[in-house]
Amino acid sequence: MDMKSSIDATRKGFEESFASGDFYDRQTQDTAHLIRILSFINIEDGMKLLDLGTGSGYLSFPIAKNHPGCDVAGLDIVSTALEANRTRARKEGIPNLSFVCYDGIDFPFEAGMFDLVVTRYALHHFPDIEHSISEVNRVLKPGGKLFISDPCPNACDTERFVDDYMQLKKDGHIKFYTMEEWKDICGRHGLAFADSFQSSIRFPKKKDTAVGFEAVLRRHNKTVIASYDLAETDTELYITEQVNNLLFVKEK
After folding, report:
1. Angle, helices 129-139/179-188, rounded to nearest 10 degrees
2. Across the strands, what pairs with 117?
3. CB 227 within 8 A of CB 154
4. Alpha-carbon span 64 to 70, nearest angstrom
5. What are the pLDDT digits (tens) for 72-112?
6. Which of 6, 64, 214, 236 is most enclosed, with most CB atoms within 10 A?
7. Are 63 and 70 spatial neighbours (Cβ–Cβ below 8 Å)?
8. Do residues 242 and 151 lie in contact, with contact meaning Cβ atoms separated by under 8 Å?
9. How many Å apart are CA 100 and CA 37, to the nearest integer?
10. 8 A C-beta contact, residue 167 and residue 209
11. Other C-beta atoms within 10 Å of 45: how many?
């Protein structure tokens, strides 16, 4: 799949996910995780922040509400979600929060605009991760920070069952990265590792979006599959994914 097709698949998949309402919320929302992130990233008054792959604004809304002295921008490819976010921000009276749509490749911001870039459960959809991280570096101020929260493969999953599984839904999933892979990628683009914590997510998937599931099971080692605590109901599948929560600093 070429880059444009991958981005289009992600856009279409998330338009459908956002429309599903409660099910999408079950996939992504976790109050304890959110509270830990907000504490971990250490926001200070006057900062300019970018929420990359903002989606429904799960990070950007509480950041903007809790820090009215900061300017927060949410960036995404799904225009329908962003318009809904703008409507919500107006209704809730959050003047320091804006949302910007882009092509999924080049960030529409000037160099050195932001003190902090945050991104949660998004980067595994980015088809050119090297370019995207170089764009993060470009828009960060010297000494600015990048916070990544994204699932990772289990240590035993060297053949990447989890990526095959996630790709069953045609929404542009590319891959989950290990902590070492993130350190390598970010390091190549002037971002030094600073700190981290680990979390997990119990991820539901609708069976009707998982065509080929049985074939994926046959291709992979049963011990690896068991490490994700796979479970089935009549209509859904569940796995537990470990999550890397990583902080990087732009080298001055």
Report:
1. 60
2. 50, 146
3. yes
4. 7
5. 999 999 999 999 999 999 999 999 999 999 999 999 999 99
6. 64
7. yes
8. yes
9. 23
10. no
11. 8
26-49 pLDDT, tens digit each: 677 899 999 999 999 999 999 999
Pairing of β 71-76 and β 140-152? unpaired
Q: Report how far residue 70's alpha carbon sits from residue 55's, in angstroms, rounded to the nearest whole number.
A: 20
Residue with tokens 């190549």: 188
Distance CA 225, CA 239 (A): 9
Angstrom distance (rounded) from CA 121 to CA 113: 23
Cβ atoms of residues 114 and 139 within 8 Å: yes
**Contact by Cβ (8 Å): 171, 17:** yes
The closest alpha carbon to 60, from 28, 99, 113, 22, belongs to: 99
Domain ranges of the chain: 3-200+243-250
Structure tokens at 133: 């991280």
Q: CA dist 236 to 205, 224, 230, Å?
A: 6, 20, 11
Q: Are 62 and 34 in contact (CB under 8 A)?
A: yes
Using a cut of 0.90, tell me whether the model's pTM lies above it. yes
What's the rounded Cα separation, in Å, for the pair 7 and 117?
A: 21
Buried b (16+ CB within 10 A) or exposed e, 156-181: ebeebbbebbbbbbebbbbbbbbbee
The third-level CATH classification (topology) of the domain covering 3-200+243-250 is Rossmann fold (3.40.50)
Strands 71-76 and 48-52, by their bridges, are parallel
The sign of the torsion formed by the CA atoms of 76, 79, 84, 87 equals positive
